Amino acid sequence: MKKNKPVVQNPIDIDKVAKNPSSLQYPHHVGGVPIKVTDEIAQRSAALDTMDFQTDQQLLQIKSQMELLASQVKDIQDRKQISQWIYNAKIKFKPEVNHVYHLYVNSENEHVLSLISPEEFEFSQRKLGKFVNSVRLLGDHTWHIIK
């Protein structure tokens, strides 16, 4: 014979149960996280402020990098111009890299590169002319004026 199963009734009131609890705008049980409706304008404004700050910082960093590159370009152009000027001078020896030499203008208005510094030149019998600058030959065979 078949036994009759007792009818079990759901103790939860049917009126208090949501059909789709995941789509509710509020927690559907005590342990649920409260869902707050956000103010879209305030949220968008905060996001835009943050975005403006970050992009401004990045633009300032790129601008400072561009300024550094521009100054490096100017330094290289100056070194190139100085090097051309020195290579057009009279040089009666083979200059060595990383040595200091001295540039003079003689009485014929020609530039002369010399090993003799202005301090040593005082005791010399030769007259090289008026001292212009001390220069150093760099590894790339450009010249750097020593201040």
Set out the fold topology:
Elements: H1 40-87, E1 100-105, E2 111-114, H2 118-121, E3 130-137, E4 143-146
Antiparallel strand pairs: 1-2, 1-3, 3-4
Structure in words:
The chain has two helices and four strands. The chain has 147 residues and is α+β, with helices and mostly antiparallel strands. The protein has a four-stranded antiparallel beta sheet with strand order 2-1-3-4. The termini are far apart. The mean pLDDT is 85.
Count of DSSP strands:
4
Main β-sheet description: 4 strands, antiparallel
Low-pLDDT residue intervals, each spanning 5 or more residues: none
- Element-level helix/strand string: HEEHEE
SS-based class: alpha+beta
On the 0-100 scale, what is the average pLDDT?
85
Distance between the termini: 116 Å
Oligomeric organization of the protein chains? single chain
> Per the principal axes of the C-alpha atoms, what is the gross shape?
rod-shaped
Strand order of the largest sheet: 2-1-3-4
- Helix content, binned percent: 25-40%
DSSP summary: helix tally: 2
Strand content: 5-15%
Features:
rod-shaped, four-stranded antiparallel β-sheet, 147 residues, alpha+beta
Short description:
It contains two helices and four strands.
